[in-house]
Amino acid sequence: MQFPDEEHTGNRIAHHRKRAGLTQRGLAQRIPYSYSLLTQVESGHKPASPDLVATIAQALSIDVTALTGQPYVTELQEDRLTELIRPIREALDLYDLGVDPDLRTRPAPQLIAAAERLCQQVRATKLYDAAVNLPEVMAEITTAVYLAPSTELWAALSSTYRTAHDLAVKLGYYDLSTVALDRMDWAADRASDPLISAVRQYMRALVYFREGEYTIGKRLVGSGHSLIERAPETRESLAVAGQLHLGTTVLAARAQDADAVRTHLAEASSYADRVGEAIDVHWLSFGPTNVAVHAVSAHVEMRAYGEALRSAAHVQIPKEWALSRAAHFHVDTARAQTETGRSEAALKSLITARRLAPQQTRYHSGARETIRGLIHLSRRTPDTLDHLAAWVGL
Predict the structure, then answer these.
(1) How far apart are CA 121 and CA 131, in angstroms?
(2) DSSP output for 153-212
(3) What residues of the chain score a pLDDT lower than 50?
(4) Can you give the three-state secondary structure of 13-31, one letter per residue?
(5) How many CB atoms sit inside 10 A of residue 34's CB?
(6) Taking the domains of the chain in order of start, what are their residue ranges?
């Protein structure tokens, strides 16, 4: 199977490396990865892992999306999602215009419920439905909150901005996700809810995680913990605090800090024991399952693939868990399976991720790179893998 060069992450790495005037050895000297691995990635014989891509992007002072090729415009057009980005962008831009005199709004309880449904659609990976409905709900709540300000409406507006961020990240529009987080902070401040602000800091930290800026990410998580201290101790505040520790876990894993990983996993586990499965708290899916899933992710990030698979074998996903989170777990598992030569198991994990969250998996850079890696490992591409590759646009 032949792939077009523009779909080849390794090819993009080579292109930007040459633009920076670096040889392969020169770039390898700037990153904590071997020259051998770099050459295999550039030639397309090894998948470009998210941590490698982030490290190279940082070393070359470019955006990660320049290497991953996101957003994947062709596939987005096929799914009729590109046409939905502009209305979201416009709705985010018009946040400060106040009341729209031509807009009739629903009662506040209905608007708050509509914001909740958007969160639910994203967690169920119904990305198209969420993207279609978001601009209207955002506009209605904006007008309603200017007409009759309330903590509940400001919180609902902040929630719509979070939905915009989640959609932008899943579809590869990282510039738009940053704008959405700024709007989320603006609304959270007016809602006077420190927990919403803490969740926003957690999400900002993940932006820096993707970009390889782990020190900044840790500072943002620390800021989130400071915000929680302003709130009374409740099940909700404990869940948010625990999720912040999980955020630090993946940041530490990318930084190859095993001691910090163990420390923050233990802290998160302590909170999870007190909270239980808290899928109803700010849509975080925090609890013992999420701690176990993050342990798998941390091992993958630290390239301890055997340990990741041993941990994954003990994970049991609750039926009520967010499909988006479950699918991400299966993509992580597939990456570990690929790296340990378990191609058939990796293919099954990717198929499971696709079944649970088809749109999310199609636009997941890690899934695409793992599929590419499986193709290079296979002497003869199985029909199932061939179809999976064609589906994600490889």
Answers:
(1) 9
(2) HHHHHHHHHHHHHHHHHHHT-HHHHHHHHHHHHHHHHHHT-HHHHHHHHHHHHHHHHHHT
(3) 1-6
(4) HHHHHHHCCCCHHHHHCCC
(5) 10
(6) 1-68, 70-192, 205-320, 322-394
Q: Which of 156, 164, 124, 170 is nearest to 282 (CA)?
A: 156
Which pLDDT value is given to residue 3?
A: 39
Give the pLDDT score at 6: 47
- Residue 121 CA to residue 105 CA, distance in Å, equals 21
CA–CA dist 84, 77 (Å, integer): 10
Who's near 103: CB < 8 A, 6+ residues apart? Answer: 139, 140, 143
Q: What is the CA radius of gyration of the chain?
A: 21
Please tell me the pTM assigned to this model.
0.88
Packing angle between helix 258-275 and helix 288-301, nearest 10 degrees? 170
Q: How far apart are CA 339 and CA 79, in angstroms?
A: 31
| CATH number listed for the domain at residues 322-394 | 1.25.40
Q: Is 381 exposed, middle or buried (0-12, 13-18, 19+ CB in 10 A)?
A: middle
> What burial letters (b/e) apply to 198-208, b meaning 16+ CB within 10 Å?
bbbbbbbbbbb
1-68 has which CATH code?
Answer: 1.10.260.40
pLDDT of residue 177: 94
Peptide bond into 47 cis (omega under 30): no
